[in-house]
Automatic annotation (TrEMBL):
Gene3D superfamilies: 1.10.287.130, Histidine kinase-like ATPase, C-terminal domain (3.30.565.10). Residues 187-387 form the Histidine kinase domain. This is histidine kinase. It comes from Nitratiruptor tergarcus DSM 16512. The keyword Oxidoreductase does not apply. One of its GO terms (molecular function) is phosphorelay sensor kinase activity. It catalyses: ATP + protein L-histidine = ADP + protein N-phospho-L-histidine.
Amino acid sequence: MDTNLTSEKSSLIKFLALYIFLTLIILILASMMYYKFEKEVMLYSRLPKLQEYSKDVIRRIRAMHESLLEDNYYPRYSTFKSAIYDADHVKIFSLLENEHIDFQNFLYKNGSYIHFIKEPSLYYLGAKYVIIEVKDDEIWLHKVYKNIVLFGSLFLLFMGLVGYFLVKQFLKPMKNSFILLNNFIKDTTHELNTPVSTILTNIETIDKNELPPKINKKLNRIEIAARTISVIYKDLVYLLLKDKFPSTLEKIDINALLSQRIDYFKSMAESKKIKISFSQSPCFLEADKQKITRLIDNLLSNAIKYNKIGGTIKIKTFSRGFYIEDSGIGIPEEKIGEIFKRYKRLSSSEGGFGIGLHIVLSIANEFGLKIKVDSKVNQYTRITITW
């Protein structure tokens, strides 16, 4: 069934989404580790030069400290900048562009600058720390970003293909099971059609007025069971073959069609002593008659199935729609949005597969019909179809 294929695709997409999400997390962690590694490599490649700069600054401030000349100036360099801080991390003098100093690390990247902290053996000019600052050209960083994008994309593509292949392998047994199940349902429904049609045809030829009441009652039960099986058969055929038969549009007299279907379900309604009232106004619809019949049959079947003994069914047509209202168990307000889901059954006390209202929704969507559900628990359910 196409729905099974849709379910398979949905499962495939969900698994791949989770798989790719986890792959992205791994990729992000790996990228962070790669970035950190490359940054450390870059910093330590600069270390010898930074140590050389710091030694020169320390030599110059020692000379200033020892000369105590008033015209001494703090050393300045074109290739780097420096600063000196005391033991309490208070600035004594600074030429730094970025003065956010991390005294916990001796070598680190600070924005677009690299800082190196050196402690002189003696406190020249009261300096406990000498900070060297150089500009980071960030060539290494652009290379890191380029590699992350390139190899990350290739990694994602590879993992996506692997994930897709694995999911297809995992879902293959499920797909084969769906195919076997679909073939079984098709064969079963085909075999059911002939005997059920034969039973109903023969029942309709019998004059029930000539039969004893006891036999007549048993015959009614047989007829109800056969009609129930017939409705299930037609629903299954619709689900299996709906996409293989194009719709044939014709002008449908909804009053005539409803009257016909009410007559079809008459014995089922009488078995629960349900009274059906039908209020008519001129009502026509351009659609496929067989599919609209399926829609009406499912609404009537549910109205009987979920009704109470001795209940009522009210049917009313108007110019652009109709409604079917039963006096049954009703639907909780929070559950109304779920009743059209496939295989959804809100009550386990009645039989069925939970496909009837799903078929109603499918047919309504095909012909642009609107569905409105009004219901109160233990009072009524009214389903209105408009166009």
